[in-house]
Design a protein that fits this description.
mainly alpha
Length: 444
Amino acid sequence: MKDAYMIMSDVWGQSWRDRLIVLISITLLVFGNVPGTIALRNTLLVVALLLALGRLSAFRGVWNENRWPIASLGGFMVYGTLHCLFMAQWPAWARGEFASQMGLAFLWFIIGLSLFRRRRGASFLDLTIVAGTILALVEFGHGAWMWASTGNWPFMETYTTASHLEFTFFMNLVLAFVLGVFCFGYRQAVPLTKFPRWSLLLITALIVFVSIRAGARNGMIGLVYLSLSLLAMFMIFNGGKLGVARAVALCMAVLVFVGGLAMYSYHKDSRNSVFTDSVICGWNYNRTTAWFDGGPLPVMPDGREVDDSAYKRVAWIHKGLGMIAEQPLGVGYARGAFGMELKRLGYPNPTVAHSHSGMIDLGVGLGIPGVILWLAFCGSLIVIGFRAFAVRGEILGLVLMLITCGFIGRMMIESIMRDHMVLLFLFSAAALLAEMQSHRENRE
């Protein structure tokens, strides 16, 4: 917390605009995950837009270096708007959904490009780490209070967010920043962060602990992916400097950590004992009616019911793929496009909304062209990030690549293409793009 205080006090000597940018960013990153803060997010949006209007020249400068991601995201927005107007099965609903979801997220993307183009003070990397640490400390403090009061630390529930899935989504995003700079950010002449390296280890331990207690399987999958991705990048770019013995030791240490984490999560969550059979039953969903809440869950040979979550997620993904094949141009944008299309097809599904896969929801809503345009945008971020890191050694490029790959991966198995999650992703990606360009110009 001392380092967080030093970072915040360091920017207080800057201009009032820079102070306001810091305040907006910290508030959005912390409270964007907290339920019941829509009015706060909208207020921040208005203030941020006013600041961005005064920095249109900065946006024009970013456009010159980032035409691919800006144009591809712009193309996605244009296609989505036209689809809502002329192709949607529910045009009025689609227009409202697209404007409130992707429209607001797109505005935050433009804001991130404009506000972080030329700005003094704490970097967006530091601001994200501060915000993640604050949220993790609050979650840890609540867990400690419950443990002291009841003797039990909460598991599979969170205090700061509406669900443990949303909490681990943001914690994984913050970890990409923390571990990226921890692994690669201290070999540069100019430090990338004001956090000392030992404090990043403590923050990592804190975030991993609260993420484990949150008990979200998708969060653990994301954490394993992040660990293995960083190990691969480190061995590719720095492994030759370690020597064979230390390189093998490092790989073994990371694999033991990841394996231990996976085993703990597997045994801690009782659902995992029936996970494989639940997935198989879910893929063969048409044998029962439970997948749209039309009957009891399937029973395995040993008499146990399948895991409700794994069974239905896989069933909805399989059914969603069939919907996309039947309607390749989409039926209309909506967070709950999957559930709305089920109702239109005659399925009695009072509780099924989204498919729990952002990629399926997007494909059902905007069709294959919408998925291709979105993947083109994400692909451009990955290419830019990797080139910046591989060619110029920019750590922010590595972070950009990690959070984008993580977002795409999690889109496959979770409905995160909505609400504050897509908003935070686009804002973070834009801020990283803008700061990367500023760093290049400063070096030149």
